[in-house]
Amino acid sequence: MDTSQQPIQKGIFLNLSLFQFLSFVRRGVFYTFMINYLFDLMQTVTFTTLLGTFNMIASALGQNLLWGRISDRYRLRAKLIIAGESIAAITYFVVFLIHKSLLDMQANFTAGLSLIVGLSFLEFFWSMSDVGWAALLTDVTTSKTRGGIVGTLNFIASLGRMIGIVFAGFLYNNGEGFRQGTIFYIVIAMLFASATIMWITSGSIKTSKAKTENTTIRNAVEKIYKWFLISLIIIVIGAACISQVFLIFINLSEGLDVSDPEQSFILTAWTLGGMLTSLLSGWLADRIGRVKVLFMGLSLAVVTPSLYGSTLNVLTTALIYGLNGVAFWTMQTVGFTFAGDIIPEDRRSRLFSRYNTVMALSWGPAGLLVGGPLADIQTQRFRLPRYTAYVNTFYASSIMVALGTMLFAVKVAKPKVKTA
User: Fold this and answer.
1) How far is 280 from 273, CA to CA, in rounded Å?
2) Phi/psi at 250 (nearest 5 deg)?
3) Quick one: pLDDT at residue 6?
4) Which domains does the chain have, with CATH numbers?
5) Dist CA 92 CA 119 (whole Å)
6) For residues 322-331, average pLDDT
7) Coil, strand or helix: which one is 209?
8) Burial letters for 67-106: b for 16+ Cβ neighbours within 10 Å, e otherwise?
9) Residue 76, SS3?
10) What's the rounded Cα separation, in Å, for the pair 189 and 169?
11) Nearest-angstrom CA–CA distance, 328 and 326
12) What is the DSSP string of 107-145?
């Protein structure tokens, strides 16, 4: 019997929860201050923003060219995750040794560049864990409960990330946590722990041969999925392109001119909004439908950026940014669930690789290629005040998300109803 048609076992769910928790604690610990550290070494904003872009490119190449195909052909899920976590742990150690040796030679810029290149190389192999996780999670859940389970795991992920960020604040120590290797060693230990958890879990998961869909149904479903990804590209770029601009905007002297604690409060509101929404949106998606809940999240994603310029105080800004967190995590949770429902079983990993690639656009490329240039053109070429230019960029974000939402409504929501 196909394992995807049976309810998830409690033991498997607990192990997946622990794996997800460790994964996001690790990300919070390592990446919270990485941009600050790179800037200290390289003294250039442009080069520091390349980290997220190169990581995204390396992950997309790995998942789409290799790991997705291997996972589907040989039905590998847990083994890819174990291999990805283990290779990442070893590579982290090698990257640190190279970085440390360059620091000892006083080659700070090259040391920073070695981190960007090394972490991107690492991401190529680590992406086998990402694609294995997406396929495995879909394999062990059913369409009736998938939304709630994915939402719960995303809640756990958000909690883990917040804890990781808190630890990072103590471990960073003005860069010494990276220079001396403390952060690297902690991350390496957690990677091996994650690999061990997945090795234990793999013994409880039975993988059966995937069933092949009728050709006509497959073609119709893959057409819907193609348009889903195209609309999602527009939505993700539109929503994520202002992430860096927003942080600069709230610090403007002619605007809110927030203090460090006030900025932390605003960013925490985004995370808390997302945590609570992960649970609620997944539960709602299982009961009233994926498309309806997605439209709720997309509506908030359209409205919230256009309100940033009208906020009068920190509390109002935190509330609106918190609603934006609600929007993003609704898309994250229900979007993954929607993809898992419509992707054919025998192409699950390959098509999830494309989904992961689209979502990875929020890592850095959206801001580097769209949001940043759009803001800079207004201030440098048209000589607009920074406050006005940034508000205009927020409006552009809302317009892009609205266009992606309309495309989703016409090309995905209506055809999905007809084929359901």
Assistant:
1) 11
2) -75, -10
3) 55
4) 9-202 (1.20.1250.20), 215-419 (1.20.1250.20)
5) 8
6) 96
7) coil
8) bbbbbbeebbbbbbbbbbbbbbbebbeebbeebbebbeee
9) coil
10) 19
11) 6
12) -HHHHHHHHHHHHHHHHHHHHHHHHHHHHHHHHTS-TTT
According to the per-residue pLDDT averaged within each range, which of 35-39, 52-56, 89-93, 310-314 is highest? 89-93
Contacts with 411 (C-beta within 8 Å, 6 or more apart), sequence order: 224, 227, 228, 230, 231
Q: What is the number of residues in the chain? A: 420
pLDDT of 288 over the 70 cut: yes
CA distances from 331 to 72, 113, 157, 225, 305 (A): 26, 34, 15, 15, 16
Token code pair at residue 296: 């709720």
Banded pLDDT at 417 (limits 50, 70, 90): low
Tell me the per-residue pLDDT of 234-268, one tens digit each, with 9 for 90 and over.
999 999 999 888 988 998 999 899 987 898 889 88
CA distances from 308 to 147, 215, 275, 285, 291 (A): 30, 48, 21, 28, 27
Residue-by-residue DSSP string for 309-374: GG--SHHHHHHHHHHHHHHHHHHHHHHHHHHHHHS-GGGHHHHHHHHHHHHGGGGTHHIIIIIHHH
Tokens of 56: 């995204």
How do residues 200-226 score in pLDDT, each as one tens digit?
998 887 665 666 667 777 788 889 999
Distance (Å, whole) CA 389 – CA 419: 44
Residue 59 has phi, psi (to 5 degrees) of: -65, -45
Q: What is the pLDDT of residue 3?
A: 43
For residues 412 and 333, give the distance between their C-alpha atoms in angstroms, rounded to a whole number.
17
3-class DSSP state of 19: helix
Q: CA–CA separation, 95 vs 187, rounded Å?
A: 13
